[in-house]
Amino acid sequence: MSLPRLELRRASKTYQSNGQSLRALYDVSFTVEAGSVTALVGRSGCGKTTLLNLAGAMDFPTSGDVLIDGESTSALSESALTALRRNRIGFVFQFFQLLPALTVLENVELPLLLAGAPDSQKAARDRLQWVGLEDKASALPYQLSGGQAQRTAIARALAHSPDILIADEPTGNLDNASGEQVLNLIRESAEKWGAAVLMATHSSEAAAIAQTQIRLRDGRIEETIRA
Amino acid sequence: MKRVLQLFRTLILRPLRRDLLRTSLTVLAVALGVAVVIATSLAGDAATGSFLSSLETLVGRTDLEIVANGGVDEAWIGRLAALPVNARFAPVIETQAGIERAGSVTVYGIDAVARWRDSDGAVISTALARRLGVAKGATVALTLNDAAREFRVVDIVDAKDAEFVLLDIALAQQALNEYGRVDRIEVFAGARQDFAALERAIRATLPAGYELRKPGARSDENQRMVRAFRWNLLVLSYVSLVVGAFLIYNTISVSVVRRRPEIGVLRALGAGRRWILWLFLGEALLFGIAGSAVGVLLGRVLAVGAVGLIGQTVNALYVSSRPAPVALDGADVALAIVSGVSVAFFAALAPALEAMRVAPTEAMGRGAREHQARLHWRRDLAWAAVITLMAAAVSRIQPIDGKPVAGYVATLLAIAAAALAAPAVVIGVSRALGPASRALAGAEGLLAGRGLSAALGRTAVVVGALATAIAMMASVGIMVGSFRETVVVWLDTQLRADLYVRPASRGGGAGQFPALSPEVPGLIAGTPGVEAVDIFHGLEVRYGGVRATLGAGDADIVRRYGRLRFLPGEDRDAALQSLIGQDRIIVSEPFAYKHNVHPGETLTLPLGDRNVALTVAGIYYDYSSERGLIILDRGTLLKYLPQQPVTNLAIYLSPGADAIAVRHAIEERAAGRHILIAPNQALRENAVIVFDRTFAITYALEGVAITVAMLGAANSLLAMVLDRRRELGLLRYLGAAPAQLRRMILLEAGMVGFMANVLGLALGFALSLLLVYVINKQSFGWTIQFHPPAGLLAGALTLVWATTILAGFYPARVASRINPIEVIHEE
Questions:
Q1: Which domains, from first to last, does chain B contain?
Q2: Searching chain B, which residue's CA lies closest to the CA of residue A87?
Q3: How far apart are CA B422 and CA B755, in angstroms?
Q4: Which phi and psi (to 5°) does residue B183 adopt?
Q5: Cβ B450–A101 below 8 Å, yes or no?
Q6: Cα separation, B784 vs B782, whole angstroms
Q7: What ipTM was predicted for this assembly?
Q8: pLDDT for position B366
Q9: For the whole model, what pTM was predicted?
Q10: Looking at beta carbons, which residues of chain B come within 8 Å of A85?
Q11: Domains of chain A
Q12: Cα torsion for A44, A45, A51, A54, to the nearest 10°?
């Protein structure tokens, strides 16, 4: 049996603030397989974003482990973590987070450029075509609608064909039609590109595309629903 | 009011405290600007403030003094004493003497009281006694003219900090070999003497060539002489403040852009427009006041160093002066506060007005605002072109009250034009460098170039500030370099003799012409290997209310051996030939410019006891003195001033003669006389050293302007990093390593430096034309050939560029240490 692409094993996270300990996550364990979508649901402040940061190798658990293909992120050096994010992880944010100075194409190309990948422009154009924005390649982010901006962000997140896609409220800032387009792309990224998708969302429509829904409450897993 | 203060505390003071480093950098930039203005003003006062005769500290203030070009005949003391007035007439000789290993000192010959009369007695001031470490009864050795002589200290008198030696007038005349002549007669009115009647009586008696004047006239004359120099220095000192103004503008703009959403909310909650305006003006005033306060203290410290530099120039070019102590008074403090605060206020006005116009609920993102700035760059460039044309037109206006006001206005217009052209330069250079920087530096190259043009408003201000400082450096560098080259070429043509002789006592200051013993020219002329000796008499004269140098040589020798260059269209040989046996003169270019004299005109110069009408035969190029020179044939001079001593000799050797051997032979023949024999080369080298020393203060001022600009660059790069924290955090999410962010910021710093160099060099070139052809010409009357010192400029620009990159190191470190999780979830 192959290892799960992403696994959280009894992961906990505690923050220190003004001498006080704030526990954001308690003993969270679950797995996300390649080619599947897992949705994190729960109220604001329940720990979704903290969990995404652990899963995206942006942060370390205070105790427990985050394993990618069986390897613990806690064991990795700073440069190895950077390489991990650069090569194997893609991020999508609620507020798109496109760089305003770069064109749409350059935004998509950026992770490849940071990694020093060859033929970065061609790969970026392919992704843009996939999200249906090839005609917006030279536009600047402020010239895009919300939906277009988020599709660009998805193209960017998948530019380097990551193994894991972390999406934080990807439809939180979009109207229904745009939200649906984005959800289709996210589903496709798992089905077509084989990514393990972990998505935090408040939206039941978004959660509905997931094979697994994990409900968080006060930093603990309250319920796991498998489709 | 209370509510505004409350808002000021939360919206302005708190962020300033949080950004303590940036706040300190801005305050320091203003402080440096103010300090330079204060230091230049204080040092200028100190370096030129001691024109008053130190004798006055001892004998009290004289009421009137009688002076004459070439000295006053001492017979007039008796004649004046016979006038039916209640007044005392005191003859004075004033000269400089060399003291071994202790520089030079002023020596006064006065009508001493009996107890001082001694065959070799001298009275010295306490300050001099202290410096030389001598007591009453000791001997001091003085070199007067070309003779060394020992004097016995018969008394030590207290005259504050003044250093001088007093000799009885008869002893002074004997020591100087100047019998029958004094430098001036001082008049002390007696009790109840009607002052106007005294003046009338003396004036009626004196011959036409003598001048009766108030004692302050000499000081006024000196102040007038150095006025243009000080005025130019003061204007140059304001450059740092102008650069500081860019930084205040930048800081307040950043403050406004960052707080736009808060301003919008405040407006929505009922805050008036004026509240908002004064919040940001208040922030600028805070920078102005804090910067001025630090600047005053810093300026006081810098002034002590600057006195020496300014004093050197004043001594070399204008008149001998001994620096007075640096004194900071209320007016200086007021000048500092007013300069600092007004610069801060006006620099902040535009961004503060912009803040005032923020609509309620507006929380516009920076992306849209920067887009607006991008749209305006073409319009700004058009304005830059219009203002450049205006500057060119203004530069043609004649000086006002002898000051090149139009030149300065044109300079300011050129700086404004460059500031307006800055956005276009940023866009242009970013576009030009974009593909190359991406190809060479990958993502970092792409991001650096785009980051700068995206934050166009911000980048343009930093580039404008740096470019202004670079331009000042480049333009002054080009001006000084051109001037230097002109002087070197001029020295080459002017100094044609093989050896030059002068008495050893000369302190090196302007206006001092110690005499050679009468037998020296004959001794030298008879030395084997000497072909010709040009005997030169130099003396300080007053003409048109200012001092000038009158020089008399052998016009025929100058014609045959010299290479004086005359202004275009003038016949050198004819002009020099015409001087012989006639009341004709040639004048130097600065003299002609200062007194508006043209060839063929006649000027009246008092010589001895009469006024002599002298016709101008020609105008020649001269860079030795800004005071101006009048040259006549020595035959003509001796006709009017028969006793005038020889002061310098120019020796032309026979073909094939060995200069060193001839020099030794002269030294042997003139043994016992303290003369200095300088070979041609040494004199030239020395002239260039004096030239370089003269401009030391200029370089110091430029150095400060560049430092201020560097502080600004570091400050602005830091602001750019802090403003783009979210973007930098995002890049970490996208897989950027901290080292990549560091490289990106350093690349940005390098690009800012490059853009500033491009703009600064263009502006500097324009300003150098203004300096060479307008400001310098109108201030000093010198024609300077345009010779940009390419090597020096390239070196200086590279250094500035490297320093800009250095200024990016701290911001780069901050960028690489940003916590991506914190910044990405701030929204």
A1: 1-56+222-364 (no CATH), 62-214 (2.40.70), 369-495+697-827 (no CATH), 505-673 (no CATH)
A2: B735
A3: 8
A4: -80, -35
A5: yes
A6: 6
A7: 0.91
A8: 47
A9: 0.79
A10: 732-735
A11: 6-226 (3.40.50.300)
A12: 130
